[in-house]
Write a structure and sequence with these properties.
Blueprint: H1 4-9, H2 11-27, H3 34-50, H4 55-67, H5 79-93, H6 98-109, H7 121-131, H8 149-156, E1 157-165, E2 170-177, H9 184-204, E3 208-213, E4 216-217
Parallel strand pairs: 2-3
Antiparallel strand pairs: 1-2, 3-4
Length: 219
């Protein structure tokens, strides 16, 4: 059986993650390195564990989380779709069972807010883990005077915490935002689509999604 640890050690996958990260750096996007891949994989696993998924589903979510952005090595545009195709080819070579392959590629193919949505627990966990990874150390530009709105929004987030409360049927993202760097209007201009995607993902678990910024509920 192919495990998450096997995927983490795979040279081809790691090369795709690094190449995609370099492509996005050149284009001026935030960090999409192994650090992001690992964080998404671990958070997706945590979400499924807390919501009562079995060990096999958790393993698949970790793999999907680690591989979800490899399509960036081809192009940022439609990276979810190209990433899903690349993932299928790699997992087929590794002789992963067909049903597991499809679970993973479906999640990856639907993780972008422009074309995707939560369809099952693995895809929902991937969406929540990916879209809530908002933090200032993902900003790579050194000159703050040259930050675009994406840089400002990410740099303004000084603290980000995702909490899952099964007993309350609530999944909440709590942010601390420096409003001297970015206003809440700026935040929603960039992230409203992503937060709506998180709301639909939470609903798949029978939960509500709540966004809190600087102690106040905003969604």
């Amino acid at each position: 059986m192919i495990t998450y640890k096997d995927i983490q050690k795979n040279k081809e996958i790691n090369a795709m993650i690094e190449q995609g990260n370099q492509v996005l750096k050149t284009l001026g996007y935030t960090e999409h390195s192994k650090k992001h891949a690992i964080k998404v994989a671990e958070h997706a696993a945590e979400i499924l564990k807390i919501t009562g998924a079995d060990a096999h589903q958790i393993e698949l979510a970790q793999i999907a989380g680690y591989m979800h952005d490899i399509g960036n090595c081809i192009n940022r545009q439609d990276h979810a779709h190209s990433g899903a195709i690349l993932t299928y080819s790699i997992l087929k070579e590794l002789d992963m069972p067909i049903s597991d392959r499809f679970t993973i590629v479906t999640a990856i193919g639907h993780h972008d807010e422009k074309t995707g949505t939560a369809l099952d627990p693995v895809s929902a966990a991937l969406i929540l883990a990916d879209k809530t990874d908002v933090r200032r150390d993902r900003v790579r530009a050194k000159d703050r005077a040259r930050y675009d709105i994406h840089d400002r929004v990410n740099y303004a987030v000084t603290e980000s915490t995702l909490k899952i409360s099964p007993e309350k049927k609530l999944i909440s993202l709590n942010l601390q935002i420096d409003e001297g760097i970015c206003t809440m209007y700026d935040y929603f201009d960039i992230f409203l689509g992503r937060m709506q995607m998180c709301r639909h993902a939470a609903e798949l678990f029978g939960a509500r999604f709540k966004l809190t910024a600087n102690g106040s509920k905003v969604l």
